[in-house]
Amino acid sequence: MMRRRTVDAGSVSVEAVLLAPVLVLLILLVVHVGRLGTAHTRLVAAADHAARAASLVQPRAMHEAARTVALDNILQNGLACESVGVEVNRVQGIDPVVVQVDLRCVLDRSGLSLLAPVPRVLSATSSEVVDRWRVDS
User: Fold this and answer.
1) CA 130, CA 91: separation in Å to the nearest integer?
2) What angle do CA 103, 62, 59 make, to 5 degrees?
3) Which residues, in sequence order, are CB contacts of 74 under 8 Å at separation 6+?
4) What predicted TM-score, i.e. pTM, was given to this entire model?
5) Fewest CB within a 10 Å sphere: which of 1, 16, 41, 128?
């Protein structure tokens, strides 16, 4: 018996060669989006901790307390930021007084230069009521 060769012999290997880069890019995109989500969650947690720390100290020490706690929290959680910005504001004119902390993180792009050619900037804001029994308002 003689076997006849068909025209589509080898088409599976050609399709695999053409689809492999697309599948690799899709996997890298999923990993990148997952890292962004995790980084944002960690930045929100750092903003929450910084706002709580700022609400427990004297008004003149709020910025330093928030900055110290935010940077420590970012470092402990392994969030890779090229630069971190911390802004602390006391919202006056309302009772009770509220302190608001804004964090800004430029993510480190090492290893993701293909998917992130421009810097990714994440930001998070957290507010906390100033504890009047611990602070001289």
Assistant:
1) 10
2) 140
3) 42, 43, 46, 81, 84, 105
4) 0.77
5) 1
Cα atoms in the Cβ-side hemisphere of radius 13 Å centred on 131:
11
Signed CA dihedral, 92, 94, 97, 102: sign only: negative
Q: Judging by beta carbons within 10 Å of its beta carbon (0-12, 13-18, 19+), is residue 62 exposed, middle or buried?
A: buried
- Give percent helix, percent strand, percent coil of the chain, each to the nearest 5: 45, 20, 30
Residue 43 pLDDT: 93
Which two tokens mark 57? 């100290």
Whole-number Å distance between alpha carbons of 129 and 118:
37
Q: What is the pLDDT along the chain (137 residues), one digit of tens a residue?
A: 566 666 666 677 878 888 888 898 888 888 878 888 888 999 999 999 999 999 988 888 999 999 999 999 999 988 888 889 999 998 877 778 899 999 999 987 776 666 666 778 999 999 998 877 765 54
CA atoms within 13 A on the CB side of 121: 6
